[in-house]
Structure formats: structure tokens, C-alpha cells
Write a structure and sequence with these properties.
With 192 residues, the chain is an alpha/beta fold. It contains six helices and six strands; from the N terminus they run E-H-E-H-H-E-H-E-E-H-E-H. The protein has a single domain, classed as Rossmann fold, CATH 3.40.50. 40% of the residues lie in helices and 18% in strands. The N and C termini lie close together (8 Å).
């Protein structure tokens, strides 16, 4: 297994202990992991507070912060990863980085820019089923769009889990779904 350089982006809750715990899990598997703080120290107790802060900053500023965090390492061939909001940011960056080694999406996706193409980029998505933020119709459309870009996409759905089911500090937490997600995700990373 090659050691991957992973850029892991936090959710709309901010850079909380669960993100650091996930990074530690990836490090324990032999990977190098960076967890940029796109909210500059702000964390939130509710998704509504986080979304309000996210809107205050603006999508363009968040993407700029993410690009600046990833740029010094992009020549190494990054695996982009993220949780919910962070997954959408990771997707945007990975699809714009010709040297990206992979894309690991946890609990989220994003719209695709028109005419994006990649060369068989390995992509794995883990999402609750159902998920209030990732409807079944949206995921079907997203999957087809991603395939058209040239990405090699796998989707794993977890029935009955809440949106951010891998975060042990949130009501959405689902131990069985989280354990399976990490088992499958670590297997995915081992193939890159």
C-alpha cells in the first residue's frame, strides 16, 4: 500500500474533535493527513449556525481558503476528502486538479462545473439513506454526471443512518454505519 497524502475538509460544524479523530484514524493506516481550518477557529453546535456562518463567508472565499491550503501539496498527488460541506469542497478541488489521486466523499457531494473531465479519477461516496441533504434523485443524477466526467465512482448508502453518522459527537452518529464506512474507505485508499 502506498502512503497517500490526504487533504481532509471539515463539515459546516467546523474543525471539531471528530475531524481530528478521523484524521488520526487515517494516519494510523499509514497516510499523511492535513486538516485545514476553513472557518479559522469557529465551530458550531447546530447545522443552522454553521450554515449561517458559511453563507456569511461565502462560497468563493471558502474555495479560495481550500485552494490555498491544498496548493503547497498538490504536486504530491493529493487524495481530497471531506465531510458534508467539506466533501463538496473536496469534490470541486479534486475535479480541478489533474494530479489528484482520488476523492473520498463522506456525507456530501456538489454540483459539477460544465465540461469537467478527469482521467478515471477514483471516487468513493458514503452517504446516509435517506439523507435530507443528498436525495436519491440527486445522487442518481450526480452519479451519471460524475461518470460522464471520466471518474470511476462507487456509492455506499447506509439505511437508517443520520446525515453526519460518522461524527460520534452528533445525534446523527451510527456506530455500525461509521465502522463499515471507515473499513470500506480504508480499503479504497489502499487501492490508490
Amino acid at each position: 500500500m502506498d502512503r497517500m497524502n490526504i487533504m481532509l475538509f471539515h463539515s459546516t460544524y467546523g474543525l471539531r474533535p471528530a475531524v481530528h479523530a478521523s484524521a488520526d484514524r487515517l494516519r494510523a493506516a499509514g497516510h499523511e493527513v492535513r486538516v485545514p481550518d476553513l472557518f479559522e477557529g469557529h465551530t458550531f453546535e447546530t447545522v443552522e449556525e454553521g450554515m449561517a456562518f458559511q453563507e456569511e463567508i461565502g462560497k468563493d472565499e471558502l474555495l479560495k481558503r481550500a485552494v490555498l491550503a491544498a496548493a503547497p501539496y498538490s504536486d504530491q498527488g493529493l487524495v481530497y476528502a471531506g465531510f458534508s460541506l467539506g466533501a463538496s469542497i473536496a469534490q470541486t478541488l479534486a475535479l480541478g486538479d489533474a494530479k489528484a489521486r482520488g476523492l473520498l466523499l463522506l456525507h456530501g457531494t456538489s454540483d459539477l462545473a460544465p465540461n469537467v473531465t478527469v482521467d478515471e479519477l477514483p471516487v468513493q461516496l458514503h452517504v446516509a439513506d435517506p439523507d435530507a441533504f443528498e436525495s436519491g434523485d440527486w445522487l442518481n443524477s450526480w452519479y451519471l454526471q460524475m461518470q460522464r466526467t471520466g471518474a470511476d465512482v462507487e456509492i455506499y448508502r447506509y439505511p437508517g443512518a443520520g446525515h453526519l453518522y460518522t461524527d460520534a459527537d452528533l445525534p446523527d452518529f451510527d456506530q455500525a454505519a461509521a465502522d463499515l464506512t471507515w473499513k470500506v474507505a480504508l480499503g479504497f485508499l489502499a487501492t490508490l
